Amino acid sequence: MDCTICSSFPMIIRPPRNTICGACFEGIKCALALVSSSELESRLADRKLSNLTAPNKGLGDLVEWIKYMKNVERELNERICFLAGSLTAFADQIHTDILIKPGDGSSISTHRSILATRSGIFKNMLDSDICKAPPQDSTIPIPELTHDELESLLEFLYTGDLPPEKIEKHAYPLSLAAHKFEILYLEKFCERHMLRSLNVNSALDVLEISDICLNQKMKERVLGFIVRNFEEVAFSEKYETFCSKNPHLSVQITRATLAEARSNRRPSGEVCSPKVVGRDHGGVFRI
Questions:
Q1: What is the largest CA-CA distance in the chain?
Q2: Where does the record locate the signal sequence feature (predicted)?
Q3: Number of domains making up the chain
């Protein structure tokens, strides 16, 4: 079909008819459905954009909505640039008032207010008598983090983001630290990264972290991935060490794999009845 939207033919030689292909038609339907969603309608109404909250919306309204969203994006970028000044205060050590000691290397100076507003655990620690001493004498130890990992943690607390190379390198320890100090946004940030980059080599590590952090949703997704790629995972170098360290998780992997194999083997609706395979002193063995 000669689509008036996506066709590669020049407009001047295109036949004079208004037809669109199925892909463009479905795309426009999805876009209009997005504009019509209740959440967006409430936001648009709050912005006094009544023409975009009318019952009947067309392509003209879609264009207006795209322009509006571009303005929102620009405003958000300006806000991010404004808030980035807090990272400068950390990088230049402007009026820092507390030290955090990592497991290795020197202590890092930071701001109590940032710690207290980002984590309830940090707030409780700062409210204790041990942290009410002068800045040079007040130190919070976090021995489970290295100096580089602690720097990345603090950078995230100041900016709410991390460069790709840092989250790639420190996702696992940062996820554990986020769970320990109840930094929910950092937990979600690390979870999204770990699931996006999930592969055979990382699956066991991510499963262990999801178990420690009590993240059942992520755990189920990783278990499903391991079951689908069980042969590769089971014959990887780290599998034996993983099983020795996490016997309960290895049992869960085995059970999930067997359950998947059984469901694939059994015809739909068929119930497998027990089979007598032997007797011993009057007992019956069944499988």
A1: 92
A2: none
A3: 1
